[in-house]
């Protein structure tokens, strides 16, 4: 920078001198020398500028390196402080372990002392057991003697029991005699409440009449359920036949609303057969439809048998009967919806 400043000062002097020389109109030879020196000085200035820029970049890079080094030093100082803390913690742990070791050694001493005392106690107990075994042997001998005495007493008691059994048999014979006497007394007493028996017979007759009425009501209920199931079964079959005929006549756009049903009824009346028989005649040759109709027929048969079984079983059966009827009603509802949708499409 100092060289730069010196060169700039020299350039300014040269320029000043050239200006003064131009004014004084001096000889042209020294002016050329001044121009050459000016160019040299400018080249030196450029070189010094480039060197200055290089120096500034190196200074910046060095500053960055210095900052990085300082950050590394800080990190290392922080790590050193952490290591010092860890060292202090480890020292404390070592001191704790040493104290625990001492405590464990003291506990071992106490446990050894307790073991010795326990061994002494075991020896004492063994000696006590020997003494107790000797005493038990003596007691056993005494018990054997007492057993012989008790056996003698048992034989005496047995003889006494046999005598008492004889007395009991005599008493039982007396009891039988008293029972015969009691039966005679009961026959005499039964003749007196003859009026009460008549009243009970009348009450039984009234109860039998009530039972007959209840059984009649039950039979009426069964007849109602059977009629209801038959009607449901018949309506479901008719809906199935209508749906099948509607599917067959679905491609005929010229048919009006309700024509398929009227045609079915008219054909059945001419042939003097039912609608189901007519549909079976129309469906001849279609294996899938015949198989389907057979399956439906079997399901209906099973449903009727199930209801018959429910009516024959014992009470209660109302919930099961309701479920079975509800199942058939749901099937009828689905068939009605299907038939209505088919009739809308055929319009």
TrEMBL record:
The gene is Cntln_0. InterPro entries: CNTLN. The lineage of its organism: Eukaryota, Metazoa, Chordata, Craniata, Vertebrata. GO terms for biological process: centriole-centriole cohesion. Residues 1-17 have a biased composition (Basic and acidic residues). Residues 1-33 are annotated as: Disordered. One of its GO terms (cellular component) is centriole. This is CNTLN protein.
């Amino acid at each position: 920078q100092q060289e730069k400043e010196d060169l700039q000062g020299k350039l300014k002097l040269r320029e000043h001198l050239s200006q003064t020389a131009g004014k004084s109109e001096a000889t042209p030879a020294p002016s050329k020398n001044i121009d050459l020196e000016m160019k040299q000085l400018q080249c030196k200035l450029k070189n010094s500028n480039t060197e200055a820029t290089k120096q500034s970049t190196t200074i910046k890079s060095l500053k960055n390196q210095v900052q990085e080094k300082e950050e590394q030093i800080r990190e290392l100082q922080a790590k050193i402080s952490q290591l010092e803390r860890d060292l202090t913690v480890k020292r404390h742990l070592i001191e704790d372990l040493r104290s625990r070791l001492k405590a464990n050694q003291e506990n071992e001493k106490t446990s050894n002392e307790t073991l010795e005392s326990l061994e002494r106690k075991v020896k004492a107990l063994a000696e006590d057991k020997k003494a107790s075994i000797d005493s038990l042997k003596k007691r056993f001998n005494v018990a054997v003697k007492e057993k012989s005495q008790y056996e003698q007493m048992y034989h005496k008691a047995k003889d006494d029991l046999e005598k008492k059994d004889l007395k009991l048999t005599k008493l039982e014979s007396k009891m039988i005699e008293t029972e015969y006497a009691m039966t005679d007394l009961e026959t005499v007493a039964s003749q007196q409440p003859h009026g009460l028996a008549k009243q009970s017979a009348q009450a039984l007759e009234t109860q039998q009449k009530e039972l007959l009425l209840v059984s009649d009501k039950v039979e009426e209920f069964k007849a109602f359920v059977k009629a209801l199931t038959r009607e449901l079964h018949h309506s479901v079959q008719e809906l199935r036949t209508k749906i099948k005929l509607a599917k067959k006549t679905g491609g005929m756009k010229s048919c009006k609303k309700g024509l398929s049903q009227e045609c079915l009824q008219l054909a059945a009346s001419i042939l003097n057969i039912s609608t189901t028989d007519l549909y079976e005649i129309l469906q001849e040759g279609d294996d899938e439809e015949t198989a389907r109709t057979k399956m439906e027929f079997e399901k209906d048969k099973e449903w009727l048998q199930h209801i018959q079984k429910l009516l024959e079983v014992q009470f209660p059966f109302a919930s099961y009967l309701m479920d079975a009827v509800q199942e058939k009603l749901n099937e009828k509802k689905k068939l009605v919806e299907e038939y209505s949708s088919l009739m809308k499409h055929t319009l």
